[in-house]
# Entry
Amino acid sequence: MVKRTAIITGSSRGIGRGIALALAERGWQVTVNYRNKRQAAEETGSEVEARGGAAFLVQADVSSMAHLDRIVDSTLDHFGSIDLLVNNAGMGPRERMDMLTVNEKSYDEVMAVNLKGAFFLTQRVANEMISLIEAGKIQNPKIVNIGSISAYTSSPNRAEYCISKAGMAMTTALWADRLAEYGINVYEIRPGIIETDLTSVVKDKYDQLILEDGITPIRRWGQPADIGKAVVAIAEGYLPYSTGEVINVDGGFHLSRL
# Structure
């Protein structure tokens, strides 16, 4: 059986780890990308292998063009192919500031990680995928962008993040349009309120909103495994006649309700 390979950016923890583990259960080989947290990445790698997958760790900052090449080149050297790219790495502003006072440094940093990095990594990977398809080494590879309900939900104290995720929506549409002729389908998964270490600082707030106020029709926190299952459905080819599709994994947050 031919092993399939996925690159998952920002997969040392949280949603990225959930995706890596879900794919591992299907026997995927996974490039676990991390920026700083080596120990967390090693834990993810160990769990991937315990679940039947294979893990390869790559330290890289997706906001750096040179680091993007490192992710791709080392994956190809180690595994020999790329069947799936998941643009998951992302960050919020280091300090939440009102839009009237947000500074250029914060804006540029968030955009570089959340939007520029994903765009240019997709560009590099897409060209490699096209070459691999033409060489008969892979068939119907896929690209998944991890967006956010912040693409359409205003949070004026973290405008940089919201704008970056709105930009990710158009990035998905553009790549879906451009790559369809090669048989490369592109998707966006739009998580809602997911329980990770990044959201732990606002746990009390969202416990109230979810469990008592019913901000989501499904009254529970989302889990990284929920996102992982959605990625598996795409990776395993269960949506072959869809591209540019937005898949909400948000407990129904996106519904308009009275």
Summary: Residues 146 and 189 are 5 Å apart (CA to CA). The mean pLDDT is 96. The chain has one domain: 5-196+223-249.
